[in-house]
Amino acid sequence: MRERFIGKIKQFFSSEQQEEKQVAIPKQKSSETIKARVSYQYPKNDSFRFPMPIDQPTVGDMERETIRRDRRYHERQIEAPVPSTKRPFKPSVVASPIHGFQSYEHDNEDLLDKPAFLRRDRESRIKDRLQNAEVDNQQDNRQSEPAVDVDLNELISEKRKSQITSDMPLLKEKVQHTETEPDDKLEHQEPVISTKDTKQEQTSRIQEKMRPYNVIMTPSDKRRLREKKIQQVSTEKRELPSLHLLNDQPTGLNQDQAWIDDQAKKLTETLAEFNVNAQVVNVMQGPAVTRFEIKPEMGVKVSKIRNLSDDIKLNMAAKDIRIEAPIPGKNAVGIEIPNKVASPVSLHEIFATDQFKEAKSPLTIGLGLDIAGRPVITNINKMPHGLIAGATGSGKSVCINTILTSIIFKATPREVRLLLIDPKMVELASYNDIPHLVSPVITDVKAATQALKWAVEEMEERYQKFVQTGARDINRYNQKMLEQNNPEGKMPYIVIVIDELADLMMVAPQDVEDSISRIAQKARACGIHLILATQRPSVDVITGLIKANIPTRIAFSVASQIDSRTIIDHAGAERLLGKGDMLFVENGARHPLRVQGAYVSDEEIDRITADARKREQVNYLFEQEDLLEKIEQEESEDELYEDVVAFVLDHNSASTSLLQRRFKIGYNRAARLIDTLEYNGIISGQNGSKPRTVLISKEDYHS
The organism sits in which domain of life (predicted)? Predict the structure, then answer.
């Protein structure tokens, strides 16, 4: 047994020596001639066997091959590491085709913001350096390359060694991936606690590594990457109310075709009685009125049809009619007759339209339906300021509620802030404590005046920021904040709503008019918008300066044609039906559009505001009491007080007439300053016709 084992070992080593001898090929001299010899063997009697016996491997070769295969298998099993426990996956480092294993710039903000000519100069300098370095390397390689006579045996042995060493890591990696362990070994691992903070950190790290570092980016790729980054910052989670907070949509318009045909026949007969030859060419039925489009024959004056309004109303037994002669863009005259039963327009019907849903502006508002039943959607940013006027009960407050509800549905508190002024104290009380408010609903008239002054100061501060950043308007400023990865620096829009302008104009007409005029003239670009409402559209309330700076007007039912011209510069509002029937004149439009306003109930407002309060907390910028305290300080402390004290102490005398002449002020202000000096103990009280005595000296006052 032992001898047989020793014989096998000798045979093993002798086979390796024979193999090495077979591999070693002696060098042949080039002078010797090599002759090729070929042996042929043909079958004689038996069939041709294939493969031939000379080509079949010998027994010794087969044994050596099995020995080598077994040895490689055992070596592979020994070298494969077996992990005791499962370990988390660790990605291997992959070389970048551009940077290799070198580190690359993580902060690519400067590279994206650099101009193109600077990037081209930098690229040209880098290319020149690389070319110079390549030339130097080629010269060094030529100098350092000696002529070496390579032995064939050494090359073959080195090749075999490199193949063996290169195969080993691949085998290791393959075994690591294929081997798995049972789940029982997972008990030895420490528990890992996952929290929300760690998830957020991981997601933020992933977002930071969004830039591909192993490819060359073209300028268009960099531009798309910049736009994608801005879009990721801007698309924050917006929690907006749902339509289920509103009442259900009504069934639709009740079109009575028999009534329409009867009215068209009566209208044609009435015009024929007054020798007006015309035909009804089209009928459009809206929620409240129906418009009959009449095409008169050649030679009929339009003014003749307009003068027949009272006669047409009498013959058709209508409450009121409105004649639009001619209809803009058509060769027809429109006669609007009230419906037998008016159909209500719900806010759900407006908000459910694609036109309102697809609007991207946070200042999108829905007003109602026009005379053809189409939704009327506008944008406060295009207004940019609005005036709402009409008689009591015509629908002004409902229109304001519709506008505010549209803003709450469309915008978050970070996008739009509201400043509500309600001298009536009850109209806008439902909107208290919602997160969109700048301050609680202001009900005091003096505080309202101070709030308008605050809006003027805010406007000036915003323009100062625009100058510093080089922005022209609020949209460009917010875009620059996003490009700088500073979404907190974005400016929200501010919408100022005044429910009753006439009450403010009675208390402080000059201050209110000055503030409103300044805001209306300049505040559009900085994102501050005004919406004024009044029920007394007289010239002393809607002054020429206010009217000139507010291009968008909404007129409800008024008493006279003069009031209609005061509001919209056109007649026609005196013939409206009330209950939301309005004439809407948009910025840039020459002709008014008749709209039936959407109705929002108190229950809907309560549900919407309650939902807004649940979503976010209130963040007031100031309170109404702060404004009142500021007013008291301004009234108690005159800005000339210190100058008056210095003047009185220098001249050692004080009187009302002396202060009037010296400081060029009125009697009332001078008398208040004298009373303040007396109250503070600087001068004595009034003693008949004798002058007042100065009680302290300059040194005592400054001590």
Answer: Bacteria
**299 annotated as ligand-binding:** no
| 395 annotated ligand-binding residue | yes
- CA-to-CA distance for 281 and 268, rounded, in angstroms? 11
Which of 570, 597, 627 is the C-terminal boundary of a domain?
627
Report the distance separating Cα 375 and Cα 358, nearest Å: 13
Answer yes or no: do 558 and 423 share one domain. yes
H helix or E strand, kind and range, residue 529? strand 528-534
Identify the CATH number of the domain in which residue 566 sits. Answer: 3.40.50.300
94: left (phi over 0), alpha (psi -120 to 50) or beta: beta
Q: Which helix or strand (DSSP H or E) is residue 531 part of?
A: strand 528-534
Q: Does 114 fall in a domain?
A: no
The pLDDT, as a whole number, for residue 165 is: 44
State residue 333 phi and psi, 5-degree precision. Answer: -110, 130
Q: What is the pLDDT of residue 588?
A: 82
Label residue 317 left, alpha or beta by phi (over 0 means left) and psi (-120 to 50 means alpha).
Answer: left
Produce one character per residue of 567-587: b if its CB has 16 or more CB atoms within 10 Å, e if not: bbebebbbbbbebbbbbbbbe
235 in a known ligand binding site: no
| 620 and 479 in a common domain | yes
pLDDT along the chain (703 residues), means of 10: 75 58 50 65 61 61 68 59 65 72 54 57 77 67 48 45 43 40 42 42 46 60 67 54 79 73 89 88 89 88 88 87 86 89 88 89 92 90 91 89 93 92 90 92 89 92 92 91 87 93 86 90 91 86 85 92 89 88 89 91 91 88 78 68 88 88 89 87 83 84 77
The Cα–Cα gap between 166 and 156 comes to 15
Domain span holding position 294 = 257-338
- DSSP state letters, 20-46: HHHH--PPPPTTSPP----------SS
Q: How far is CA 646 from the centre of its chain?
A: 56
Whether 584 and 527 map to the same domain: the answer is yes
Give dist(CA 584, CA 597) in Å, integer. 10
218 and 361 co-located in one domain? no
Q: 493-498 and 528-534 as β-strands: parallel, antiparallel, unpaired?
A: parallel
Distance CA 682, CA 701 (A): 8
CATH of the domain at 275: 3.30.980.40
- CA distance between the termini of the chain: 125
Number of separate domains in the chain? 4
Task: For CA atoms 374, 380, 386, 392, give the dihedral sign.
Answer: positive
- Classified as helix, coil or strand, 589 is coil
Token pair of 400, please? Answer: 């304001």
Instruction: Tell whether 285 and 214 lie within a shared domain.
Output: no
Residue 396 marked in a binding site: yes
Q: What does the alpha-carbon distance between residue 241 and residue 612 come to, in Å, rounded to a whole number? A: 7
State whether 329 and 397 are in the same domain.
Answer: no
676 known ligand binder: no
Q: Could you give the 3-state DSSP secondary structure of residue 284? A: strand
Determine if residue 609 is labeled as part of a ligand binding site.
no
For residue 85, the model assigns a pLDDT of: 63
One domain for residues 273 and 300: yes
Q: Would you say 394 is a known binding-site residue?
A: yes
Predicted pLDDT at 212: 52
> CA dist 405 to 242, 367, 424, Å?
12, 11, 19
Reported pTM: 0.61
Residue-level pLDDT at 366 = 92
- Tell me the two tokens of residue 603: 């229950």
Binding site annotation covers 391? yes
Query: What span, in angstroms and rounded, lies between the C-alpha atoms of 489 and 518?
Result: 25
Q: Of 577, 596, 552, nearest to 350 (Cα)?
A: 596
What pLDDT score was predicted for residue 124?
79
Distances (CA, A) of 476 to 229, 427, 471, 606: 17, 36, 6, 36
